[in-house]
Amino acid sequence: MTYSFKGFIPVVHESSFVHPLAAVTGNVIIGKQCYIGPGAAIRADWGQIILEDGVNVQENCTIHMFPGKSITLKESAHVGHGAIIHGANLGRNCLIGMNSVIMDDAEIGDESIVGAMTFVKAETKIPKRSLVVGNPAKVIKQVSDEMIAWKTKGTALYQQLPADCHETLKEVEPLRAVPKDRPAQDEVYKTLRDAFKK
């Protein structure tokens, strides 16, 4: 669902997909090949929220800010299930882990990875290519080329997902039994550990 607020109507590029069970409100600008999952709330009632091309905001995420602030999620930023971005800016090709909280005026550097359930305090500046975990968040090492390659491949799946949703997603009545000819799904992505096993 998209909602206008005080005359601001969200702008969503036609190649992006906003799930009908997500809520996008007000001064939101969504670029190309973005995916917004069900339960996500992107609320730009008090400031502007920009999602550059290729960003994904997964299920049950919240993006909001204090009045007078505007934020940007740069190209290919990847926001995992249940994360909260409140008044923070996300760098290019970064990953925000599931159920993390990124607070006001924080900045996540390009190609950084924030681990699941990490709490990034307000005004924290995370340098590019940092691996960040904990509560409060702490940089524990630099992101390797292998790690960023794995992250980039995962984000590419989400950049393909809008087209797949436009083409195949539809509301249906459930089946009452598993069909005998139900196909198996392809293995298209592995965990970081499995991806680089020798």
UniProtKB/TrEMBL annotation:
A Gene Ontology molecular function term of the record: transferase activity
Keywords for the protein's UniProt record, in alphabetical order: Transferase
A Pfam family per the record: Hexapep
Keyword RNA-binding attributed: no
Entries under PANTHER family matching the protein: DYNACTIN SUBUNIT P25, GAMMA CARBONIC ANHYDRASE-LIKE 1, MITOCHONDRIAL-RELATED
Protein's recorded name: Transferase hexapeptide repeat family protein
Source species: Lacinutrix neustonica
The organism's taxonomic lineage, starting at the top: Bacteria, Pseudomonadati, Bacteroidota, Flavobacteriia, Flavobacteriales
